[in-house]
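queue> pop job 88
queue> type: inverse folding (structure -> sequence)
queue> payload:
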């Protein structure tokens, strides 16, 4: 989570909201590039996915690859302020205007995003091997760790198959084991501390008869 925001701080302000929505909206590159104002409802905290952009030399407008890809996703309140600021300062105008555009206002492409992305990775001290798609994987993991069910993960990820969602459920199970292990260590540590404090607070009069009998008797003067 800290690294996501570290990257959002490091990238050009023009693309800060894109980093956050890619993560917390579990969105692919083409869906971000094709997102229009009318499909982003910040009052309801939803993003509707029904359009994408494919780069086949030229940019080609299309629809998501499957019916499962057409959906409405609820996004966390955490990023709403960033999205409002982005719409006000950087998005194309009008209901049909693209939410994310290039630095010069032209349509967003991988070629006009790659340099700002590389600079942000370097500034944030993150590996250059990271891709924007990795933010989607991160968001899927966050959703699984937050307790999303298989069906909920499939909806957020736009998959009709359970196979991909199962990967993130497995990640959640591993996280559950880590949490349980940490709780176990915490409980043992606190119980040990409590026993030590209780032992230290026992007065001589509260000791058992055996403990009192074992004390060396005071010799008469």
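queue> result:
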């Amino acid at each position: 989570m800290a690294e996501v925001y570290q990257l959002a701080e490091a990238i050009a302000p023009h693309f800060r909201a894109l980093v956050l929505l890619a993560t917390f909206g579990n969105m692919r590159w083409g869906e971000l590039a094709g997102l229009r104002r009318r499909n982003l409802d910040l009052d309801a905290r939803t993003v509707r996915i029904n359009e994408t952009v494919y780069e086949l030399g030229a940019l080609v407008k299309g629809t998501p690859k499957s019916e499962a890809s057409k959906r409405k996703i609820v996004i966390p309140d955490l990023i709403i302020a960033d999205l409002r600021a982005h719409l006000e300062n950087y998005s194309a105008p009008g209901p049909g205007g693209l939410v994310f555009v290039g630095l010069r206002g032209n349509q967003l492409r991988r070629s006009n995003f790659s340099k700002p992305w590389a600079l942000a990775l370097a500034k944030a001290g993150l590996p250059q091997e990271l891709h924007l798609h990795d933010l989607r994987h991160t968001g899927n993991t966050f959703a699984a760790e937050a307790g999303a069910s298989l069906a909920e993960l499939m909806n957020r990820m736009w998959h009709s198959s359970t196979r991909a969602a199962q990967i993130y459920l497995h990640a959640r199970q591993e996280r559950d084991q880590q949490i349980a292990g940490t709780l176990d260590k915490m409980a043992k540590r606190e119980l040990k501390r409590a026993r030590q404090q209780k032992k230290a607070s026992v007065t001589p009069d509260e000791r058992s008869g055996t403990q009192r009998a074992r004390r060396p008797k005071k010799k008469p003067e």
